[in-house]
Amino acid sequence: MTDIDHVVCVASLSDLDIWRHSHHYILNHIGARHYTVYVPAADLLEFRAATDARFGVSCELEVLDGEDKTSIASRLPDMLKPRAGWYLQQFVKLRALRQGGEDAVNLIWDADTLPVRNLQFVTEGRLLVYKAREYHQPYFDTIQRLTGLHRTVDYSFIAQCLAVKKHWVDDLCHLIEMRTGMDLIEAVMSNLDHKSGSEFSEYETLGTYMSVRHEKEYTLTDHQWERYGYSLFNGPQKLSARKVKCLSKYVDFVAFEKWDRRKRLHSRIARRAVSPYWYKTVFAA
């Protein structure tokens, strides 16, 4: 029996090529009662045609209460309006995480990420959390303005996935709404100082709240994962079953992010720079 109630992914047409691969890996390696990918209305038909019937495909507007990319863009200065979609997909995830019963455990999973072995997200009654090493101060400036909470850990929660309890997300959103007097989206958009193109992270916001209010209810895993999927493997289509089996001995999942795909011309340089010790072993598989 699975401990995850709902796997939540968000994607758009630019993610469709990787989604054709990643959603099968998600279904095969992450047990859950429900799976949903939220996409723009214009992309529904193409995603439904490309997605296994076990994985629900829903319109992102279903959880946005009338908000859309245009309305979010209207709150940004002209030079940052192209970032509206980036903010919108985070609000979709936060709203979707509030579905289910009070004790539901929901998982946000990045649509461009392939789990390569069976994963569990609850151990001994605690949620299992992956970590990363990045740090971006504007995220924490926004978190402080929204919640009054400060960073208390020396790691990042931006690790392609995060399991949370539904009532934690409810409590976080209520905290933001009570503190600001606004609903979640208005509160976030009104508390950006527009000094950076990236000033809000759903992962860091949820993680900061968890680390302060629910520190004893989650456990960090030391399992490894890989961010440079394109630089190392040139795309998910290059991952044969044999390579995946070999890779699964070293990491739990591999991300194939757009920014890494754009740098593929420099893949040899990237491999020398980021290749972990296991790369030659997997590549030879």
UniProtKB/TrEMBL annotation:
InterPro entries tied to this protein: DUF6492
Pfam families linked to this entry: DUF6492
Name of the molecule in the record: DUF6492 family protein
Organism: Hoeflea prorocentri
Species classification: Bacteria, Pseudomonadati, Pseudomonadota, Alphaproteobacteria, Hyphomicrobiales
